[in-house]
Design brief:
Blueprint lengths: L18 H10 L12 H5 L4 H4 L3 H6 L1 H18 L2 H4 L5 H5 L7 H26 L11 H11 L27 H13 L1 H34 L11 H17 L5 H29 L2 H4 L6 H10 L1 H10 L6 H6 L6 H29 L7 H4 L6 H32 L9 E2 L8 E2 L1 H18 L2 H31 L3 H23 L7 H30 L4 H8 L5 E10 L9 H9 L1 E13 L11 E6 L6 E8 L8 H18 L3 E5 L5 E5 L1 H17 L2 E11 L6 H17 L3 H4 L7 E9 L1
Parallel strand pairs: 3-4, 3-9, 4-6, 9-10
Antiparallel strand pairs: 1-2, 5-6, 7-8
Helix pairs in contact: 5-13, 5-18, 8-15, 8-18, 9-22, 10-22, 11-12, 11-20, 11-21, 11-22, 11-24, 12-21, 13-18, 13-20, 15-16, 16-23, 22-23, 22-24, 24-29, 27-28
Length: about 775
C-alpha cells in the first residue's frame, strides 16, 4: 500500500502503514532497552507456560493443590519423553571411551571424573538451570533462542515488519535495566551487519538440522546397544541378527508416533522410571561391592588434570567418547513446549541425574576389578540374577530413548515451517490439553527411513557413536553461543559471569567438538552430510519465499487502482464474502488485478487476508486479527493480517471462518463509515455514515447466515529473469519450484475447503 494512497477518515483505522512508513516509524520510535518493562530478574528467569499448557487461570490461581498435581503429572510424563536418550547413555559411553581397552586404574578415575563434571556442568547447570530459563513463553529449542534475539534486535530478513506487532502482549521482552552499554553495542553491531543477520539464521538452521540428526542417530545407537546385550547370553546370534531385530523395533517405534506425546508419555514413563531405578540400584550395588573408597576419588577434578598429563593426545581423543554421556541434553530444552520448566526441573533433580551418576560410578567401580569387560561394561556389571530382567528393560528403555529426539524434531519442524524456514508439511496437534505436543507425518517417515538405513549400513554402535558425538557437540556449542548473546543482550548478565560461562562450559564443549571431529572419517561425516542436505533445502526454501514476497511488495497495486477496479461497471457483483489469501502484509497483492481481469466478478465484500508468523511462540486470540478498511466507491474492501506464533495451532477453516467474520463485524462497529460535511462557516467536519455502516453489517450478516464465503488464493509460479546468474536460475527454477510441487500446497496447509476455493495463477519473474 503506497504512502498517501489511503487516508482513513477515522484515525483509529490507521493501524497498518506502508513499508516505507513502517521503516520510518521503526527508526523514529525504536524499543530502547531502558523503555521496556522492568520486572524482577526472578520473574524473567522463571517464565513458564504452565498455565497456557495445562491449567486455566482460575485453576492456577485458585488451587495450589491442583497446580502441583498437574505439575507432578507432567514431571512424571516428561520422564517417558525427555530423558530416554540421557538415561540410556550408560549402555555405550565407557566402551566408546576405551575402544582399545584400559589398563591403569587412574585412567578409569580420570574418565569417570570427566563424565561426572560434564554431566554436572552441561546437563544440569547449563541446561536445567540456565538454558531452560531462556525459554520463549514456555517453548524451547534453537528457534526459541533465535526468536528471542529477533524480537530484541532487528534480525528478520523478511520485509514484513509492522509497528503493531510490538503491541502483542507476548512480543515485548521484559528486561532488567542494568548493564545497558554492552547490550547496546552488541545489538547495534548485529543490526548494522547484513552478514551477521544471515549468518545467525544459517547457524540456527544448521543447529536445528543437527538436532534432527540426533533424532536419527539416537534410535540407532540406543536400540543397537541394548539389543546387542543378547549376544552375551547366546553366542549363536550374529551381528546381522542383532541388526535386523533392531530394525524391526525401530519401525514399530516410528509407527506409534501418530498417537502423540501425551499418550506415549504416559505409556513410556513407568518403563523409564523402572529403568532409572534399576540402573541406580545396580550402580550403588557395584559401587559398594568394588572399591568404593577408591572410586569416590573421581569427584576430585585433579584426576582429570592427571589423566590429560598422562595420556596427552589419547586423552583428548577420548573426549569424543565422553561427550556421549551428554546425548539428549538438548532434548531437555527442545521438548520444553511439550511440558514446562518446573516439571522438567523436578524430574531432572529428583530422579534422572542421581540415577545416571550412580550408574556411571557403579560401572567404573566394576571395571576397576574387571578391566577385560570394558567392551561390554554395562551388561557385564549387571548381577547374574538381574541379567534378563535388565535386558528386557534395557531394550524397552532404548526404544523409549529415541522418543526424546523424535519429539524434539517434530517441535523444531513446526517452528521452522511457521517462520518460513522449512517447506510446508502437515502439523498434527495430538493433544487438546497441551498445545505444544505435535506430530509431523512426513518427518516421521523420513526419520524412520534414515534410521533403518544407518542401522543396516553401520551395524555397530561404536561407529554410530563416532557420528553421534559430532552431532551432539555441534548442538551443544551452538546453543551456548546463542545463550551468550541472550545473556549479554537480553538478560544483561554481569560480564564476569558471561566470561566464566564461556571459559568453563563453552570452552569444554569446543574441546569435545574438536575431539569428535577427529573421528570424521570413522562415521562422523554422517550427521554433517545430513545437516548440509537439510540446510540446503531450508536455505533454498527461505530464499525463494523471500524473493516471492519481495516481488509482490515491489509490484503491489495502489488504492486508486483498487478503487478503479471495484467501481468498474463491467465487473459483475455476486453476493457473499470473498477471502483473498495473500502473503503480502504491506499493500494489495498484484494478484488482485489478475483475478479481476480473468474472473470479471467481485463479491459484495472482499477481504485480503495475510497469514503472518511472528517471532513469538503464541499470539493471544484477541490480538490475532488486524483489520483496515480500504476505501472504494464500489464495494466494501478490507485488509486483515492474521498473526500466529510459531507454536500456535492453525484451526480448521470452519472455526477460522466464523472467528474472522465475527472479528470483521466488530471492526465495522468500532470503526463506522464516516462522511464529510461543511458547516455554515465553511469548516470541514465528519460524521458517522450510519446508512453505509449498516449496509456493510447487513452484507456480513447475510453472508455468514447463508454460508456465502468464498476463498480465493493465488497460485504463483516463480521464474528467474533472463539476466539472472546461473546459480540463481538453478535455485529458483529447479530448487524452489521443485520443492513447491513436492510439499503440501497452500490450500492444504491452511486447510481451506476445496469446494469453495478458487485459485488464480500468476508468474513472478525475480
Amino acid at each position: 500500500m503506497e504512502a498517501g494512497d489511503l487516508e482513513p477518515e477515522n484515525p483509529q483505522e490507521n493501524r497498518m502503514e506502508s513499508i516505507e512508513e513502517e521503516e520510518e516509524a521503526r527508526h523514529d520510535r525504536p524499543i530502547e532497552i531502558n523503555t521496556m518493562k522492568k520486572p524482577s530478574w526472578r520473574n524473567l528467569m522463571h517464565n513458564d507456560s504452565f498455565l497456557e499448557n495445562g491449567l486455566s487461570d482460575d485453576q492456577g490461581h485458585g488451587s495450589m493443590a491442583t497446580y502441583w498435581k498437574a505439575t507432578l503429572m507432567l514431571a512424571f510424563q516428561s520422564i517417558g519423553v525427555v530423558y530416554g536418550d540421557l538415561g540410556t547413555s550408560p549402555l555405550y559411553v565407557l566402551p566408546g571411551v576405551f575402544p582399545d581397552g584400559v589398563t591403569p586404574d587412574d585412567d578409569i578415575l580420570g574418565v569417570l571424573s570427566l563424565i561426572f563434571y560434564a554431566i554436572t556442568l552441561i546437563s544440569v547447570i547449563k541446561y536445567v538451570f540456565i538454558v531452560l530459563a531462556a525459554n520463549d513463553n514456555g517453548n524451547g529449542g534453537t528457534f526459541a533462542l533465535y526468536s528471542l534475539l529477533c524480537r530484541y534486535a532487528d534480525l528478520n530478513a523478511m520485509p514484513n515488519r509492522q509497528p503493531e506487532d510490538r503491541e502483542v502482549s507476548n512480543y515485548e521482552l521484559e528486561l532488567p535495566s542494568r548493564r545497558l552499554k554492552m547490550a547496546s553495542i552488541v545489538k547495534s553491531a548485529i543490526e548494522k551487519s547484513t552478514f551477521m543477520k544471515y549468518f545467525i539464521l544459517l547457524v540456527t538452521l544448521f543447529a536445528t538440522s543437527m538436532v534432527m540428526g540426533d533424532g536419527i542417530l539416537t534410535p540407532c545407537i540406543s536400540v543397537l546397544s541394548a539389543v546387542s546385550g543378547i549376544k552375551a547370553a547366546d553366542n549363536a546370534l550374529t551381528n546381522n541378527a542383532v541388526t535386523w531385530i533392531s530394525v524391526v523395533i525401530l519401525i514399530l517405534l516410528f509407527q506409534i508416533q501418530r498417537f502423540g506425546t501425551d499418550k506415549i508419555g504416559y505409556a513410556f514413563a513407568p518403563i523409564l522410571t523402572i529403568w532409572f531405578t534399576f540402573i541406580g540400584f545396580i550402580g550403588v550395588y557395584n559401587f559398594v561391592k568394588y572399591e568404593p573408597s577408591k572410586i569416590i576419588k573421581a569427584v576430585n577434578p585433579w584426576y582429570i588434570v592427571m589423566y590429560f598429563a598422562r595420556n596427552k593426545l589419547n586423552a583428548w581423543k577420548s573426549l569424543g567418547g565422553v561427550i556421549l554421556c551428554l546425548t539428549g541434553s538438548e532434548a531437555l530444552f527442545a521438548d520444553l513446549g511439550h511440558f514446562n520448566v518446573r516439571a522438567i526441573r523436578i524430574s531432572s533433580c529428583t530422579v534422572v541425574f542421581p540415577c545416571i551418576i550412580c550408574a556411571y560410578f557403579g560401572q567404573a567401580s566394576y571395571l576397576l576389578k574387571n578391566k577385560q569387560d570394558v567392551a561390554n561394561a554395562f551388561y557385564s556389571s549387571v548381577p547374574g540374577k538381574l541379567y534378563w530382567p535388565m535386558f528386557v528393560i534395557a531394550v524397552l528403555a532404548a526404544v523409549i530413548a529415541s522418543q526424546s529426539m523424535i519429539s524434539a524434531s517434530f517441535s523444531i519442524v513446526q517452528q521452522s515451517v511457521a517462520l518460513g524456514c522449512f517447506p510446508r508439511v502437515k502439523i498434527v496437534h495430538t493433544s487438546r490439553k497441551y498445545a505444544g505436543q505435535v506430530y509431523v507425518p512426513e518427518i516421521n517417515h523420513l526419520l524412520m527411513l534414515a534410521c533403518v538405513g544407518i542401522t543396516l549400513g553401520f551395524k555397530s554402535s561404536l561407529e554410530i557413536g563416532n557420528a553421534y558425538g559430532i552431532a551432539v557437540a555441534f548442538v551443544l556449542s551452538i546453543t551456548s553461543s546463542f545463550l551468550i548473546l541472550v545473556m549479554i543482550m537480553i538478560w544483561k548478565t554481569n560480564m564476569i559471569l558471561v566470561i566464566a560461562y564461556a571459559l568453563i562450559i563453552g570452552l569444554s564443549e569446543l574441546l569435545m567438538l574438536s575431539a569428535s571431529l577427529y573421528k570424521f572419517v570413522d562415521g562422523g561425516y554422517i550427521p554433517l552430510i545430513f545437516a548440509i542436505v537439510l540446510v540446503t533445502i531450508t536455505c533454498i526454501w527461505n530464499y525463494g519465499h523471500r524473493k516471492k514476497y519481495q516481488y509482490q511488495l515491489v509490484n503491489k497495486i495502489s488504492i486508486n487502482a483498487v478503487t478503479e477496479i471495484a467501481s468498474n461497471p463491467t465487473i459483475h457483483r455476486v453476493p457473499g464474502i470473498a477471502l483473498f489469501y495473500t502473503e503480502l502484509v504491506h499493500g494489495i497483492s498484484p494478484m488482485f488485478t489478475q483475478y479481476a481481469s480473468q474472473v470479471k466478478a467481485l463479491h459484495s465484500i472482499l477481504v485480503f487476508i495475510s497469514i503472518k508468523s511472528l517471532h513469538i511462540s503464541k499470539v493471544p486470540p484477541d490480538e490475532r486479527f488486524l483489520f483496515q478498511r480500504v476505501e472504494s466507491e464500489g464495494i466494501p474492501i478490507f485488509r486483515s493480517v492474521v498473526r500466529y506464533g510459531y507454536k500456535d495451532e492453525r484451526k480448521e477453516w470452519e472455526s477460522f471462518e466464523a472467528t474472522l467474520v465475527d472479528q470483521l463485524r466488530k471492526f465495522i462497529v468500532a470503526n463506522p463509515r464516516l462522511m464529510r460535511f461543511y458547516d455554515s462557516d465553511g469548516k470541514e467536519g465528519t460524521m458517522i455514515d450510519e446508512e453505509r455502516t449498516q449496509t456493510e453489517l447487513r452484507l456480513v450478516d447475510n453472508a455468514l447466515r447463508h454460508g456465502d464465503v468464498t476463498y480465493l488464493m493465488g497460485e504463483v509460479e516463480m521464474t528467474a529473469s533472463k539476466s539472472s546468474s546461473p546459480w540463481k536460475k538453478m535455485v529458483i527454477d529447479y530448487g524452489y519450484n521443485w520443492l513447491s510441487r513436492c510439499v503440501r500446497q497452500p490450500d492444504e496447509f491452511f486447510m481451506l475447503p476445496r469446494k469453495r476455493l478458487l485459485k488464480v495463477g500468476m508468474t513472478c519473474e525475480v
